[in-house]
């Protein structure tokens, strides 16, 4: 089983390195929920709610480009910037190896 390691910073500033399988086809949002991070994922991964908003501090250049739906949703967030992504639109694969990001999405 192929694994990838990345570092997650929760809303309270605590950091944890996670190791997740790359062969299950999971989104980053699904993986974070499996590790019991508090992510609403109201829309179920359709890029419609932005409750899985994350900001990358390392490894963003390795990620695939944002799709139109992701761009449109990020445009609605006042705190979104160049490092912002929707975790539901990212697959857990080798592109996440060594990445660091902070969970930003709302808890409402």
From TrEMBL:
Q: Which cofactor is recorded for it?
A: [2Fe-2S] cluster
Leader peptide range in chain numbering? none
Concerning Gene3D superfamilies, the annotation shows: 3.10.20.30
UniProt source species: Arachidicoccus rhizosphaerae
Give the residues annotated as coiled coil. Answer: none
Alphabetized CDD domains for the sequence: fer2
Q: Which family does it belong to?
A: Belongs to the adrenodoxin/putidaredoxin family.
Tell me where on the tree of life, at the top rank, the source sits. Bacteria
GO biological process terms held by the UniProt record: P450-containing electron transport chain
Q: Which GO terms describe its molecular function?
A: 2 iron, 2 sulfur cluster binding; electron transfer activity; metal ion binding
A Pfam family hit = Fer2
Residue segments, region Disordered: 1-21
Alphabetical UniProt keywords: 2Fe-2S, Iron, Iron-sulfur, Metal-binding
The question of whether Kinase is a record keyword is answered with: no
Q: Which InterPro entries match?
A: 2Fe-2S_ferredoxin-like_sf, 2Fe-2S_ferredoxin-type, Adrenodoxin-like, Beta-grasp_dom_sf
Can you give the residue ranges of the 2Fe-2S ferredoxin-type domain?
2-107
Q: Where is the composition biased (Basic and acidic residues)?
A: 7-18
Which protein is depicted? Ferredoxin, 2Fe-2S
């Amino acid at each position: 089983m192929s694994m990838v390691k990345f570092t997650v910073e929760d809303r309270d500033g605590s950091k944890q390195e996670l190791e997740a399988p790359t062969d299950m086809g999971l989104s980053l949002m699904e993986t974070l929920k499996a590790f019991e991070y508090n992510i609403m994922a109201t829309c179920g991964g359709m890029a419609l709610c932005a409750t899985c908003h994350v900001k990358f501090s390392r490894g963003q250049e390795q990620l695939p480009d944002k799709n139109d739906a992701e761009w449109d949703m990020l445009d609605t967030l006042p705190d979104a910037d160049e490092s912002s992504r929707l975790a539901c639109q990212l697959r857990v694969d080798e592109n996440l190896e060594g990445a660091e990001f902070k969970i930003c999405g709302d808890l409402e």
